[in-house]
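Our preliminary data section would be incomplete without showing what the modeling component actually yields. Below, a chain of 297 amino acids is followed by its predicted structure, encoded as tokens that our downstream tools consume directly.
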Amino acid sequence: MRSLPIFHINAFTTKSFGGNPAGVVPIADSLTESEMQKIANELNLSETAFLLQSADDTADYKIRYFTPTEEVDFCGHATIAAAWLMGTKYDWISKSDTICFSSNIGIIPVKWSLKAGILESVSMTQVSPRVESISLDTKTIAELVGINIEDIDDRFPIKKSNTGIWHLLIPVKTRAAIDNAIPNKVRLGNMNKEHGIATTHLFTFEGVDEFDLYTRDFCPAIGIDEDPVTGSANGALAGYLYVEHFLEANKTHTLTISQGQTMNRPGTVYVTVKPHGQNPIIEVAGAASITIEGKLI
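Predicted structure:
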């Protein structure tokens, strides 16, 4: 393995020790799949993104995502981290208004938001949302995520949602109930694997101060106990709210979502939902902070 640059980048924050950390290897063409997996395991972050030359003329790079234990098809915060790195360290903001990644779920376009010529945030367009029911009773779900059955907010259905990968969305009445959740990680991981779910995402509209929603995300099925701030799950949540008619149809909505407080890594996710026929457009945005730069040797 030749010497390659590697970065530790915190997504959905402007602070070095907040948000969700991702590894990014921006020049990964010489790496084998096995080496990518070993690097992701060594970094031991929820995901590490690897950028390669793309065979698709509509994309600038191919992007692959690895947890410490396996490859996943999509990761929101690692996409934000990779785009931020390319926009700043590799000066893509002076080359183009956007950067496009080819991934296992298709093309992921990312656009810049500048203020006085300085990159302020990046916004990725996720795939159109899909929402499905799940054959689990409320009592079992409450036990799996470690909350009381009375804490589940029955104004909203418990469903799976996908804007790249599947997430199980659990509506909860209060932020306190989410913060106090103690999931059964083994049982939850087994259930998620059985149903093809990457993560279980708890959400509430209550007690969120200046935010619209407060969330928490558990993902033992893919080798991560808890993810601090989740771009894919919060995008899927916004898609679910629109598809299930909790957001007014034929109107653009912008949601500000807070996550990560229970892990002392608070971050903010901005999700815009734009009507587009039967398939609303989901854009997930946030800032990032490059914390560590080094070399793979």
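The first helix runs from residue 33 to 43. The chain has six helices and 18 strands. Preliminary results of this kind motivate Aim 1 of the renewal.
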